[in-house]
Design goal:
Length: 305
């Protein structure tokens, strides 16, 4: 069986290539952009595993499922897999794996950074070129004693809860299932209505797409802040941007590859999607991805989705 590894150079390393080569031959296609249709091995008869990063394909898997040949496993280095048509993979007998739990600390740290940036009104400071002028646009807001509402208490949500409670905030959460944790469980509507700072940390899947729509989010307090490191399919980001413009929301933070703070009015913090990207997360990611690929070579797959 052959391994076709498709990723940017920074996403893998020679050490783990050698580890994979103990079990199978490896073709490493390392480039910033890749056209999958120009990889002939994907359409030939030999059995293979595709280890595919979504970054060089622009997070957009082409509609070539029916033409793929003898791909036993498609191994992703991401936790998310919404850029794939999982049903088409299954109908083509392709098993898909992902890499869970590798960047919990990094993403939680990014959410805290975003929160502090909003509370100190960093977007307004940047847009004023850090002009020293005492006015309401740059007046900060202290976090001590504020109510933090976490929507989705997975690994990242739980780590956030630990950090926020340690910073003197009152933490409550909503999740699909109530959990044995030292934080108060609330209904989704109550979390949205009562929180001073909201942290949606939901993964994007069929049950969560559109969950945080305009009619749900309109219950957010006028004095609240929202920090969202989630897929745009889960929440109505445009509605929240409009509320910032109208002055009916105090702050909004999210990540984007194509937008920046200068495109928006008010206290909106937009960062590139680097939340996961830390030294430790990258090391974790490569190690787990490698071990998952090896488990597939042994036909004992780990981390199936």
């Amino acid at each position: 069986m052959e391994i076709i590894l498709v990723c940017q150079k920074e996403e893998f390393d020679e050490k783990h290539i050698h580890e994979l080569e103990k079990f199978a031959s490896v073709k490493w296609i390392s480039a910033d952009t890749v056209d999958l249709e120009k990889i002939p091995e994907l359409f030939t008869s030999g059995e293979k595993i595709i280890a595919l990063s979504p970054v060089p394909i622009g997070w957009n898997f082409p509609k070539i499922y029916s033409r793929l040949r003898n791909i036993r496993y498609l191994c992703l280095p991401t936790t998310s897999y919404e850029f794939l048509d999982i049903d088409m993979c299954r109908s083509s007998s392709i098993k898909v794996t992902n890499v869970p739990h590798y960047s919990t600390e990094a993403v939680a740290n990014q959410a805290i950074f975003m929160m502090l940036g909003l509370m100190k009104r960093l977007p307004e400071q940047i847009k004023s070129n850090f002009l020293y002028s005492l006015n309401k646009k740059v007046m900060g807001d202290d976090i001590l004693g504020k109510r933090a509402g976490i929507i989705g208490l997975g690994d990242i949500g739980l780590r956030l809860a630990h950090i926020l409670s340690g910073m003197g905030m009152k933490v409550s959460y909503w999740s699909k299932h109530k959990k044995e944790v030292p934080y108060k469980y609330e209904k989704l509507e109550s979390i949205i209505e009562q929180s001073d700072i909201l942290f949606p940390t939901l993964i994007s899947n069929k049950p969560t797409v559109g969950l945080l729509n305009k009619y749900v989010l309109e219950k957010i307090q006028l004095s609240a802040y929202v920090i969202g490191l989630i897929d745009s399919k889960v929440w109505d980001q445009k509605y929240l941007i409009e509320r910032i413009k109208k002055g009916t929301l105090q702050g909004l933070a999210f990540e984007s590859e194509i937008q920046n703070i200068h495109q928006f009015e008010g206290n909106i913090l937009v960062l590139p999607p680097f939340a996961w990207y830390s030294k430790q997360s990258l090391e974790n990611n490569i190690a787990i991805w490698t071990h998952t690929i090896i488990s597939c070579l042994k036909d004992k797959p780990q981390n199936l989705v």
